[in-house]
Design a protein that fits this description.
Length: 931
C-alpha cells in the first residue's frame, strides 16, 4: 500500500505517516481496491496489455516496484493512444509505484498524464481525482500554493461561521469544486483531506483541523466509514502539532522569565490539545482493529507512539526548567538532572511499551513496503530523545534499537527503495557513532550517502550523511577532512535551501536540531583550523589575527546561516533571493560604515567586524553562558524603564566586551555608522544603549541592524519624496477572538506630527483605519513611508507577527499579519515604487525566544520595504511620538541617512530628558537599509 508520508522523514522520523488519510481516500476512487494498483478491463491487443497490467500488479504486491514500473511502461506502449481510460489507469499505477521508490517528478508526470487522458475522455469526475493526487505530490515537495491551487483555486475561503461544516469551505475552482458539482462525496472528502495536509504543512493547523472536521462530517452523513479511521488519524496529528506549538511557546515564555500565568496558560493549552489528539488517535486505532485493517492501523499506531514520546519529552523539559530555578549547589543540581533523565527513561519505556509492541507486530504482519521500513526506523528512534542535534550526549544505547534499524534496512533493500535504505543506513551509522565504533560508523554512513545519491528525492537526506561523515572525521582528529565534509553538506543544503526550509512549517523548530548545527559546527571547524592563533583556554576576550580569506570563509558561512534561518522562519510564504555584491556596495569607503557580525557557538561568541577600508577583525569571547546572563539582565533592566534608578554597570560591561576591542580601528577608519548582523541572544538587545562610562553608543555612532547583509537593499540613487500613509489606534479595543488592547492616547499627537513634518501625508485613525481603507489608500496613491502607530507583536511564529487595525463594522479590531500586509501592499500597488520605510511605533517582541526577533528583523523583507523602524519592546507612547517627530525632522535633511536621522532623534530625547531611563528611547531600532 502506498502512503502519503511527509516530505521530510528525517529529523527523528516523527512525521512518518502522520498524515495518511488523503491517499486512502484518493487511490483509485471508484475502483474495487484502494490498497493496490488497479487492473484494466480485458481488451484484445497483440501484446495482451491486460495480462501485462496484471503482471505489473503482481510484481507491485510483492514489493518489486521497479519491475512493476518496467511492465507498466511496456503496457502503455501496447495500448492505442486513443484508449484514454485504459492508459489513464496504467498512468495511475505507474504514479503510485514511482512514489513508492521516491521518484516524485516521475510520479507527478504520470498523474498529469492520467488527468489529461480523463479530460480528453470527458471524465470530469476522475479528472478531479487526478488533480487531488497531483496536489498531494506538490504538498510533499513543499509547493503548497500549487497544491492549494489544484485543490481549491488560488484563494480557498474558510467560513468559520458556516452553519454546516461541509459548507465551511468554498472554492472557485479545483478538485473540490469539481467534486461538489458532480455530487462526488468521496472526491470531496479526498480533496478536504489533501487541503488539510497542505494547510498543516504550512503550519496552519487550525485550518487543517477545520478541513478535517468538514471531511469527517461528510463521512458521517454519507456513511463512508471506510475513510473515518484515516481522517481521525490525520485530525489527531493536527492536534498533536497544535500541542507542540503551544509547548514551544510555553518553553520560550519560561526562558525569558515573563509572567508565570502566561506560561501556565500555554501549558494548559498544550495539554488540552494533546488530550484531544490522544483521544482521537485511540478512536482511529479502535476502528482499524475492529475492521482488521492493518494498513490503516499502521499510521495510527505511529501517531500514538510519537504523541506519547512528545508528551513525555515535554514533561521532562518542564521538570528540568523547574530544577533550573531552584537554588541548589552545582553538584547537587547535576545529580538531580541525571536523576530526572533516568526516571524519564524508565517512564518512557513503560508508557511507550504497548505502542512499540503493536507497531513491531504490524511490521511483521504487513508485506515489505516503504511504510513498514519507515515504521521500523521510527520505532528505533523512539528509544532516543525526540529532539537532538545528532550529538551523542544523551544517546542511550539499546539493543532493540539496532534490531529495528537492521530490520528496516532489510525491508528497504527488499523493495529496492534507495531513500528508505539511505535513512536506515544513516541511522545505523549514527548508532555506531555513539557507540564509539567510528570505522563501522564511517562505512555505514558512506553507504547511506551512496544510497541517497540514487534517489531523486533524497537530497534532503544526503546533507545529513555528509554532515555525519564530517562529525566522524572530526572525532578521528582529521580536522581538514572534516571541514571539507561540512562544506559539502552545506553546499548540498544551499542547493535545496528553499525547498527543504519551506516544505514543512512544523520543521521550524527542528531546524535548530538538523540544519542550524551544521553551520555553527562548520564555523567552529574553520576556527579550529587556525588553532595556532587561538587560545581556547583563555577566559577573556581575544583579538584573533586571521588571513583575510579565512575571515571571508567564516563570514560566508555566517551569511548562509542567516539566510537559512530566515527562509525557515518565513517558510514558503517568502522566497529569499540574495542580492549580488551587496557587501561591496554597502561597505564603500565613503559610507564610513562598519558591519559587525555576531556568531554564538557552543562555548564561545565570535564577533567579526568589517571596515570600510577593506580590513576585518575577529574577536572571540569565552564563557558564552556568562555573556548570555549579562545580556539577559541588561535587557531586563532596560525594559524596567519606569524605575527611577538605572544601573549602568551592565551597559558598561557589555561595551567593554563588544565595542572596546574595536575602538582603535573605528577611530582610524573614521567610522560614523555601525551596522549589526546579530545572532542568538544578541538580537534581543539595543546596541545603542551600551555605555562607555561617559556616553551611550548612539551618541558616538549611528546604529542599524539587518537580518542579513545579503538581503539588505543598496543605497537608492535618489532620496524618494517623503510622504507618509500614517495609520494609528488611540482607543482601547478588542478583537473578535476577545483579545484586548489598551488605549494609546499619545498616538493622536504622533500622527499629527507626521502630518506636520511630511506635507502630503494621509492620516487614517481609529475607525478610519481598517484593512479596506488601507488597501484603498495604497491603490489611490504611492507613499514612501508607511507609519503604523498601533499595537502589534513580533513573534517566534510568523503567523503571530501582526499589527492591530481600528474597529471594523462590528466595532472590533482586526489582526493583520505581516504576511497579509505584504500581500496587501503588493496587490494594491503592483507597479508603484516600493515603500522606502515602514515605521511601527507601538509594537513589541512577543512571548518567545530570540527567534521572535526574526519577525521584527524580517518586517522590511516581508513588506518589500527597504527599511523598517520598530521597537524591541513596547515603549512609552508619549516618548515614541516625540522620538518619531524628531526622526522625520532630521530625515528631511538629505545629507543624513536614516541611521543618522534616528541617531539625532535619540540624542535629542537623551539631551532633553537627561535623567530619563534609557529604556524609554533605546528599544526603537532601524532594521534593513540604513542609508
Amino acid at each position: 500500500m502506498h502512503s502519503l508520508k511527509h516530505r521530510f522523514l528525517i529529523h527523528h522520523y516523527r512525521r512518518v505517516l502522520l498524515f495518511f488519510c488523503a491517499l486512502t481516500l484518493t487511490l483509485f476512487i471508484g475502483h474495487p481496491s484502494s490498497q493496490t494498483p488497479g487492473t484494466a478491463p480485458a481488451i484484445a491487443q497483440a501484446l495482451n496489455p491486460t495480462q501485462l497490467v496484471q503482471d505489473g500488479s503482481q510484481a507491485y504486491q510483492q514489493g518489486n516496484y521497479k519491475e512493476a514500473i518496467s511492465i507498466w511502461n511496456e503496457t502503455l506502449e501496447a495500448y492505442a493512444t486513443d484508449n484514454f481510460a485504459e492508459r489513464a489507469l496504467v498512468n495511475q499505477n505507474l504514479a503510485i509505484a514511482y512514489q513508492q521508490i521516491g521518484e516524485m517528478p516521475s510520479a507527478l508526470h504520470q498523474w498529469e498524464a492520467a488527468a489529461t487522458a480523463y479530460q480528453a475522455n470527458g471524465n470530469t469526475l476522475q479528472f478531479g481525482h487526478m488533480l487531488t493526487q497531483q496536489a498531494q505530490v506538490y504538498t510533499r515537495q513543499g509547493q503548497h500554493q500549487r497544491a492549494l491551487a489544484l485543490l481549491c483555486g488560488e484563494t480557498p475561503v474558510i467560513d468559520v461561521s458556516a452553519n454546516a461544516l461541509e459548507d465551511a469551505v468554498r472554492c472557485n475552482r479545483g478538485s473540490y469544486l469539481i467534486a461538489q458539482e458532480n455530487a462526488d462525496i468521496e472526491g470531496q472528502v479526498a480533496a478536504l483531506g489533501s487541503l488539510a495536509e497542505a494547510y498543516r504543512a504550512k503550519g496552519k493547523y487550525d485550518e487543517a483541523v477545520q478541513m478535517l472536521q468538514a471531511g469527517l462530517n461528510l463521512v458521517q452523513i454519507h456513511s463512508l466509514e471506510q475513510y473515518k479511521a484515516s481522517m481521525l488519524t490525520s485530525l489527531g496529528n493536527s492536534y498533536a502539532r497544535l500541542s507542540q506549538v503551544a509547548n514551544r511557546r510555553a518553553n520560550a515564555a519560561n526562558s525569558v522569565r515573563i509572567n508565570a500565568e502566561i506560561t501556565q496558560d500555554l501549558r494548559n493549552e498544550a495539554n488540552e490539545y494533546a488530550d484531544n489528539a490522544l483521544q482521537i488517535i485511540n478512536e482511529a486505532i479502535q476502528l482499524t482493529q475492529e475492521k482488521g485493517d492493518l494498513v490503516a492501523e499502521l499510521p495510527a499506531q505511529m501517531n500514538r507512539l510519537l504523541l506519547g514520546q512528545q508528551v513525555l519529552e515535554q514533561q521532562l523539559s518542564e521538570q528540568q526548567q523547574k530544577l533550573e530555578k531552584q537554588q541548589l549547589p552545582e553538584q547537587q543540581r547535576e545529580l538531580e538532572k541525571q536523576r530526572l533523565i533516568e526516571q524519564h527513561q524508565l517512564d518512557k519505556n513503560n508508557r511507550l511499551l504497548p505502542a512499540r509492541r503493536r507497531l513491531s507486530d504490524l511490521i511483521q504482519q504487513l508485506p515489505p513496503s516503504r511504510e513498514t521500513a519507515y515504521a521500523g526506523i521510527t520505532l528505533a528512534k523512539s528509544f532516543q530523545p525526540a529532539r537532538q542535534d545528532f550529538s551523542c550526549d544523551t544517546y542511550a544505547e539499546n539493543s532493540q534499537q539496532q534490531t529495528y534499524l537492521e530490520q528496516a534496512l532489510y525491508l528497504a533493500e527488499t523493495i529496492e527503495d534507495a531513500r528508505a535504505t539511505s535513512f536506515a543506513l544513516g541511522e545505523l551509522g549514527h548508532f555506531e557513532e555513539c557507540r564509539g565504533e567510528l570505522d563501522r560508523a564511517i562505512s555505514l554512513t558512506n553507504q547511506a550517502q551512496l544510497a541517497a545519491s540514487h534517489s531523486l528525492e533524497s537530497a534532503d537526506s544526503l546533507y545529513l550523511w555528509e554532515w555525519q561523515i564530517g562529525r566522524l572525521h572530526k572525532k578521528q582528529g582529521d580536522i581538514g577532512q572534516a571541514e571539507k565534509d561540512y562544506e559539502q553538506s552545506i553546499n548540498t543544503l544551499e542547493i535545496i535551501r528553499t525547498e527543504i526550509l519551506t516544505a514543512q512549517r512544523d520543521l521550524q523548530f527542528d531546524f535548530r536540531d538538523t540544519v542550524e548545527p551544521i553551520y555553527r559546527q562548520y564555523i567552529e571547524l574553520q576556527l579550529e583550523n587556525t588553532a595556532e592563533n587561538i587560545d581556547d583556554s583563555a577566559n577573556t576576550k581575544q583579538i584573533i589575527n586571521l588571513p583575510d580569506n579565512r575571515i571571508k570563509g567564516i563570514l560566508k558561512s555566517t551569511n548562509a546561516l542567516r539566510l537559512s534561518e530566515l527562509q525557515n522562519f518565513f517558510g514558503d510564504d517568502c522566497v529569499l533571493t540574495p542580492l549580488e555584491d551587496s557587501q561591496s556596495h554597502l561597505l564603500k569607503k565613503e559610507l564610513k560604515t562598519a558591519v559587525i557580525h555576531s556568531i554564538i557557538l557552543n562555548d564561545k561568541a565570535v564577533l567579526i567586524a568589517s571596515f570600510s577600508d577593506g580590513d576585518s577583525k575577529l574577536i572571540q569571547i569565552q564563557n558564552v553562558a556568562e555573556l548570555k546572563t549579562t545580556v539577559t539582565d541588561f535587557r531586563r533592566n532596560l525594559k524596567r524603564y519606569t524605575d527611577k534608578v538605572y544601573d549602568q554597570d551592565l551597559a558598561r560591561k557589555l561595551y567593554q566586551e563588544l565595542i572596546n576591542p574595536l575602538e582603535t580601528e573605528l577611530a582610524n577608519t573614521g567610522i560614523d555608522t555601525l551596522v549589526f548582523v546579530q545572532d542568538g541572544f544578541f538580537r534581543d538587545i539595543p546596541m545603542s544603549a551600551l555605555y562607555d562610562g561617559e556616553q551611550y553608543l548612539i551618541q558616538r555612532y549611528a546604529i542599524a541592524t539587518t537580518p542579513s547583509l545579503e538581503l539588505t537593499a543598496t543605497p537608492a540613487s535618489k532620496r524618494p519624496q517623503l510622504r507618509a500613509l500614517a495609520l494609528g489606534l488611540t482607543k482601547e479595543i478588542e478583537t473578535e477572538e476577545g483579545r484586548s488592547f489598551s488605549a494609546l492616547p499619545s498616538v493622536d499627537d504622533e500622527l499629527s506630527s507626521v502630518e506636520a513634518q511630511l506635507p502630503g501625508s494621509m492620516i487614517l485613525q481609529d475607525q478610519d483605519f481598517t484593512t479596506e481603507s488601507l488597501t484603498a489608500a495604497l491603490q489611490a496613491a504611492s507613499y514612501s513611508i508607511l507609519h503604523l502607530a498601533t499595537h502589534g507583536e513580533f513573534s517566534t511564529i510568523p503567523e503571530d507577527t501582526f499589527v492591530v487595525t481600528g474597529p471594523n463594522s462590528s466595532g472590533q479590531a482586526e489582526i493583520l499579519t505581516f504576511g497579509e500586509l505584504e500581500a496587501l501592499i503588493r496587490q494594491a500597488s503592483p507597479n508603484a515604487e516600493p515603500i522606502d520605510l515602514i515605521a511601527l511605533t507601538a509594537c513589541e517582541t512577543a512571548t518567545g525566544d530570540d527567534r521572535a526577533t526574526l519577525g521584527l528583523a524580517g518586517v522590511a523583507i516581508r513588506s518589500g520595504a527597504r527599511s523598517a523602524i520598530a521597537s524591541l519592546w513596547k515603549v512609552d507612547d508619549e516618548t515614541a511620538a516625540e522620538l518619531m517627530g524628531y526622526f522625520y525632522h532630521y530625515l528631511q535633511q538629505e545629507q543624513l541617512s536614516k541611521a543618522k536621522a534616528l541617531q539625532q532623534a535619540q540624542i535629542e530625547v537623551i539631551e532633553k530628558n537627561k535623567t530619563n531611563h534609557p529604556g524609554y528611547w533605546a528599544p526603537m531600532i532601524l532594521v534593513g537599509s540604513w542609508q
